[in-house]
Amino acid sequence: xxxxxxxxxxxxxxxxxxxxxxxxxxxxxxxxxxxxxxxxxxxxxxxxxxxxxxxxxxxxxxxxxxxxxxxxxxxxxxxxxxxxxxxxxxxxxxxxxxxxxxxxxxxxxxxxxxxxxxxxxxxxxxxxxxxxxxxxxxxxxxxxxxxxxxxxxxxxxxxxxxxxxxxxxxxxxxxxxxxxxxxxxxxxxxxxxxxxxxxxxxxxxxxxxxxxxxxxxxxxxxxxxxxxxxxxxxxxxxxxxxxxxxxxxxxxxxxxxxxxxxxxxxxxxxxxxxxxxxxxxxxxxxxxxxxxxxxxxxxxxxxxxxxxxxxxxxxxxxxxxxxxxxxxxxxxxxxx
Length: 336
Ligand SMILES: NC(=O)c1ccc[n+]([C@@H]2O[C@H](COP(=O)([O-])OP(=O)(O)OC[C@H]3O[C@@H](n4cnc5c(N)ncnc54)[C@H](O)[C@@H]3O)[C@@H](O)[C@H]2O)c1
Ligand SMILES: O=C(O)[C@H]1O[C@H](OP(=O)(O)OP(=O)(O)OC[C@H]2O[C@@H](n3ccc(=O)[nH]c3=O)[C@H](O)[C@@H]2O)[C@H](O)[C@@H](O)[C@@H]1O
Hints:
Blueprint: E1 5-6, E2 14-15, E3 35-40, H1 45-55, E4 60-66, E5 85-89, E6 102-105, H2 112-117, H3 119-140, E7 143-149, H4 176-196, E8 200-205, E9 208-209, H5 220-230, E10 234-237, E11 243-245, E12 247-248, H6 249-261, E13 268-270, E14 275-277, H7 278-289, E15 295-298, H8 313-317
Parallel strand pairs: 3-4, 3-6, 4-5, 6-7, 7-8, 8-13, 9-12, 10-15
Antiparallel strand pairs: 1-2, 11-14
Helix pairs in contact: 1-6, 3-4, 5-7
This protein binds nicotinamide-adenine-dinucleotide and uridine-5'-diphosphate-glucuronic acid (UGA).
Residues 40-41, 43-47, 66-71, 91-93, 106-110, 125, 129, 147, 149, 205, 207-208 line the site of nicotinamide-adenine-dinucleotide.
GO biological process, one term: UDP-D-xylose biosynthetic process
Keywords: Cytoplasm, Decarboxylase, Lyase, NAD
Pfam families: Epimerase
């Protein structure tokens, strides 16, 4: 079939190839909900909050597929046994056959210490896992959203980062299994979109924080809070002037749902442009939680990005997605 594409830099790539038709099984007599939604990685931090939000809509049926590497059933315990909810222990590096209308593809360890723990598995999850989910989307005619990352910009030489920036990424470093893995995942999404007409959405998520972060997964917000609560020194990795921009998880989930249901393919940056140095963050946590703790400088890890701040102009264009644009206030303002 003839196919025409526009490949604009404004997040609205359009393939004129019609999307695949839903499988007839989707409309079997067991079908009840208006929308059946698969969330891979739904037992994790962001995924479980996304499931909570999706389940609020009584017309949704939600299926979670997760291998529980970094996620936990505990995050979903309030939904286990619910008639509109199913939990499958499944590794996305293996094919999955389910009849769904939308796929939120989150499965991937996100904390640097976990994704570096088994880098070959991490890249398999990003590449083979995304291929499998795209194959599923093609077979059943589902729309698929990938949670990519600000790490696709690597150690960015442009600041703040717009979606048009191609990044500065080390292809052979210890973070490459994750950042290059996500870059390949984005490539696969666009190839399936152009070649097969799959309806795709790509979110480039910037550092997100909130309840259910693993206390011991090494991410900076949970590390500092846990250290402050225990009365231990806050470990700022050198030089401490590196920056990050932190988004509250409820805002992230709203952004993901709006992106999925809007008409832009992305990639679209999702995050809060409020930018902190790690030293500022430590001082902030200290002041809010335990003014008696000290701040200590420790060794950093290779290829740590020196600055990161999203340009969220495009996110704001997707109707009502300004929720991420919180003032660059104190992290505690959300009580998360
Ligand atoms: N949290 C952030 O700041 C952030 C930033 C950028 C991008 N992201 C992306 O968002 C997504 C969710 O991140 P998170 O912070 O909730 O991480 P998380 O580690 O809490 O959740 C990831 C989930 O995926 C599951 N998983 C991992 N490998 C899998 C596999 N092979 N098969 C099936 N399930 C698997 C884990 O068990 C876990 O439940 C990830 O794709 C991550 O790359 C997160
Ligand atoms: O938002 C993103 O795109 C990425 O952000 C994070 O990766 P990173 O920014 O390295 O997250 P942290 O491990 O929380 O580190 C943030 C900064 O804090 C510093 N840090 C970390 C831990 C600590 O105890 N002290 C400390 O100063 C690190 O050196 C780094 O500069 C996530 O964990 C990735 O999954 C995600 O894709």
